[in-house]
C-alpha cells in the first residue's frame, strides 16, 4: 500500500508512531529558524514524505523520497516495519520492531558455491573444515533468518598443501636396501607413509621413517624410488625427491663395493640394533661403542675381515656383559687396507 495525504492535512503525512525523538517528529513553525518535536503538540508521530511497502512475500522494501534524502540499499523486512525520514534527510529504522520481526536462526557455510554445513546456533561464529585434499577452496557464509537467507558474505580463498616427505635416501646394505627420510612435523594428523618404485606402490602403511627392501626383490636395472605421506581423510601428498636404486643383473651379481659404515637399524632401538658396513677390500677393522663421555663401553669388531657386506648386532651390553643405561651412544668404525684407511662415526639412541 502507499501512504499519501491530501492537501489541508499535515504537509507530508505521518506514520502511526511512536515518535522518534529528535528525528522524524520534528516540526518548524517559523520557516526553519527553530525546530520542535511534535510531542509538544501532543502528537506521537513521525513525518512521512512518501513510503511504499511491499507485502509479506519477502520482496525488498523501497522508499521514494524527496531529492533531499539519500538513496538507500534494499533491506529485507516484512510489511509491518516502520520507517521515518528526518528533517535533515537521514533515514532511521525502528530497530525495536525490526528485531521483533526478523529473527536470526543460524548460518550456512558454503564451499566452492555448494552448501557445506548449516549451523543452527547463532552464537557459533566459527567452523573448521577438516580432512581436505590438496587444492584451492573458496568459502563464504550467509545468515539464516525466520524470513529467509541473507546475501553471501565476502569470499575467503584457502590453499591446502599436504607436506611431502623430504631428504629420501636409499642406501645399499647387501642383501638389503635401507630407505630413510625426514619425519613430517606438520600440525595435520599424519596416518602413514607409502613407498613407490617407478610410480608403482611398493609398500604402504609405514609408520616409521625407515624401511628395508630386499635387494633380490628389485627387478634388474635402474629404478626411481619415492615416498609419499598419507593424511586423515585418506588424502596423499605428492612424491618426494627421487632416490635411485637398482636391482641385480643376475642372481649372482653383487653391487660394486665401497668401504663404508652404512648405519644401524632400528635407531632408536630397544633392546638391540644391527650395525651394517661394507669393505671393498680385505682390511683390519675395528668397531667400538662409546658413551657420551667418550669412554669405550663395547668392542664389537676387532680383526681382519673380507671384502663384502657385513653386519654386527649390539645388544646394549658393555664389555663385562652388563646392560648399559638408555641414552645417546656413538659407534666408530676404523678400517686399514691397501687402498688406505677409513674412519667413520655415527650416533644411535638406546630407549627404555
Note the topology:
Blueprint: E1 2-3, E2 26-27, E3 36-37, E4 51-52, E5 83-85, E6 91-93, H1 95-101, E7 104-111, E8 114-119, E9 135-145, E10 148-149, E11 156-160, E12 169-173, E13 176-180, E14 190-197, E15 200-206, E16 210-214, E17 221-231, E18 235-236, E19 243-247, E20 260-265, E21 273-278, E22 283-290, E23 296-305, E24 309-314, E25 327-337, E26 340-350
Antiparallel strand pairs: 1-4, 2-3, 5-6, 7-8, 7-9, 9-10, 9-11, 12-13, 13-16, 14-15, 14-17, 17-18, 17-19, 20-21, 21-24, 22-23, 22-25, 25-26
Describe the structure.
This protein is mainly beta and 352 residues long. The chain is 2% helix and 43% strand. Strands 7, 8, 9, 10 and 11 form a 5-stranded antiparallel β-sheet that branches. Strands 14, 15, 17, 18 and 19 form a 5-stranded antiparallel β-sheet that branches. Strands 23-22-25-26 form a 4-stranded antiparallel β-sheet, with no helix packed on it. The chain is elongated and about 120 Å long.
Question: How do you describe this structure in short?
Answer:
With 352 residues, this protein is an all-beta fold. It has one helix spanning 95-101; strands at residues 2-3, 26-27, 36-37, 51-52, 83-85, 91-93, 104-111, 114-119, 135-145, 148-149, 156-160, 169-173, 176-180, 190-197, 200-206, 210-214, 221-231, 235-236, 243-247, 260-265, 273-278, 283-290, 296-305, 309-314, 327-337, 340-350. The strands form eight sheets. Strands 7, 8, 9, 10 and 11 form a five-stranded antiparallel beta sheet that branches. Strands 14, 15, 17, 18 and 19 form a five-stranded antiparallel beta sheet that branches.
